[in-house]
């Protein structure tokens, strides 16, 4: 199976797999047995019917690894960010967990999710682009552009 880099499109999938992996590795079956010998450092709470086992180093490693991966998978990407920039931001999030705070605060302060129209949302998020033809471009004979209006002033300006 080829190795794939984590990118913004698959960040939710990676996060969900990290959660499932964490749950599978930490879940224990609840079996009621009266006479059981438990490892040293275990504590039994009879009022809650709860047996707390001492954490092994592998348990701590899995916990922190899952947290770091989940954090890196949820780093917000900017519009029109290249794959290499996205991978760099994910690596920075793994190495320096506070590096993504600027991206999160940027999204919060823009309030793009609270606008009513799609065009306003794109403008608030910084995802607008402008397509402008050059003065040497000429349309191909019979070509049609859907959902486009050409104003006479604009077409005279570039000819």
Describe this structure in words.
It is a single chain. By secondary structure, this protein is mainly alpha-helical. It has one domain. Helices cover 45% and strands 4% of the residues. It is built from six helices and two strands. The chain has a two-stranded antiparallel ribbon with strand order 1-2. Helix 1 (11-26) packs antiparallel against helix 2 (57-73) and helix 2 packs antiparallel against helix 3. Mean pLDDT is 75; it is low at 1-9 and 28-32.
Provide the descriptors you would attach to this structure in a database record:
mainly alpha; disordered N terminus
Tell me the layout of helices and strands.
Layout: H1 11-26, E1 43-45, E2 50-52, H2 57-73, H3 83-95, H4 101-110, H5 118-125, H6 152-158
Helix pairs in contact: 1-2, 2-3
Please tally the β strands and state the result.
2
Mean pLDDT: 75
Q: Approximately how much helix is present in the residues? A: 40-55%
What count of structural domains?
A: 1
Largest sheet: 2 strands, antiparallel
Distance between the termini: 54 Å
Question: Rounded to an integer, what's the Rg over CA atoms?
Answer: 27 Å
Strand line-up across the major sheet:
1-2
Q: Count of helical segments?
A: 6
- Shape designation: elongated
Structural class: mainly alpha
Give start-end ranges of low-pLDDT stretches. 1-9, 28-32
């Amino acid at each position: 199976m080829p190795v794939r880099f984590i990118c913004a499109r698959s960040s939710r999938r990676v996060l969900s797999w990290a959660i499932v992996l964490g749950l599978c590795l930490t879940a224990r079956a609840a079996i009621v047995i009266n006479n059981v010998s438990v490892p040293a450092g275990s504590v039994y709470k009879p009022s809650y019917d709860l047996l707390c086992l001492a954490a092994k180093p592998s348990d701590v490693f899995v916990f922190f690894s899952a947290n770091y991966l989940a954090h890196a998978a949820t780093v917000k990407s900017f519009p029109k960010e290249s794959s290499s920039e996205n991978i760099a931001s994910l690596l920075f999030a793994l190495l320096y967990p506070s590096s993504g705070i600027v991206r999160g605060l940027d999204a919060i302060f823009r309030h793009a999710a609270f606008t009513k129209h799609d065009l306003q949302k794109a403008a608030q998020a910084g995802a607008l682009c402008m397509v402008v033809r050059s003065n040497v471009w000429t349309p191909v004979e019979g070509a049609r552009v859907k959902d486009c209006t050409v104003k006479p002033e604009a077409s005279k300006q570039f000819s």
